[in-house]
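Researcher: I'm preparing a figure for a lab meeting and need a structural model of a single chain. I don't have an experimental structure, so a prediction will have to do for now. The sequence is pasted below. Please return the structure as tokens so I can convert it later.
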Amino acid sequence: MKIGISIADFTWPSGPAKLGSTLGQIARTADQAGFDSIWVMDHFWQIRMNGPEHHEMLEGYSALSYMAAITSRAKLGTMVTGAVYRYPGVLAKTVTTLDVLSGGRAWLGIGAAWNEAESRGLGIPFPPIKERFERLEETLQICLAMWEGKRGSEKPLHGEHYQLERPLNVPQSLSRPHPPILIGGGGEKKTLRLVAQYADACNLFPSPEVPRKLDILREHCNAVGRNYDEIEKTAMFQFDLGDNGENLGKVIGGLRWLAGMGIQTAIGSVPKIYETKRLELIGERLIPAVADVEAATAGSR
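Model: Understood. Here is the structure written out token by token.
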């Protein structure tokens, strides 16, 4: 099982003046400790599950680019970009830039978006959910086309919501055929269908519903002719080992529970992440302990 870290809260005791140096220390420690990936939310305000809206929140791709410069191996992505937050051509260019500057370590994490208050507060159009899913699918199609395109052969892209006269993308991403795509959410009719058709990974909430969600994903894969095994199955988690590792056994048990339902990668938060000894402890004791834990195959449990 692979372990990724999600940084979802930037309200730390040292305050905004030292936020950059603290984030740098977190990223370097996670990279050196063996975390497979580092993720940040793509939100502009703090979300209600984590704290008040006025708590510190960094713009996702700026934060990832900063961390790309001070890390060398961990993959980098948003968990997840709201499809309506950026024009698709600009999003493809932004992820390409992150991929090039990081040496080929970028992921595109994306979803249909849900935070209406944040969007309207900052003047971002927030259409009804049906249209948001339409825009999500068009965004995926545009990003894939821009990553596939060769210089001098850009054809116009005309969809229902977006029209690109010349989808030029130079330099191209280092990740080929494109930066891997993760789609967040467990919606059974739309989200998991989009995973089957376009994505390299899904991301689910850690609940007893996971096996059923993965069985539905397999059905969508069969319907579109996609190899289900090509898709990485990820879930959110919390890595709370305690101050001195006293919860290690409990955390390992939770990860084995996820693997037993078919999850291959756990992407989680760490309480008091600014105390980087907690990341070091995960690297020393947890990551080696679950390295050989294999996910069950959906449909054969």
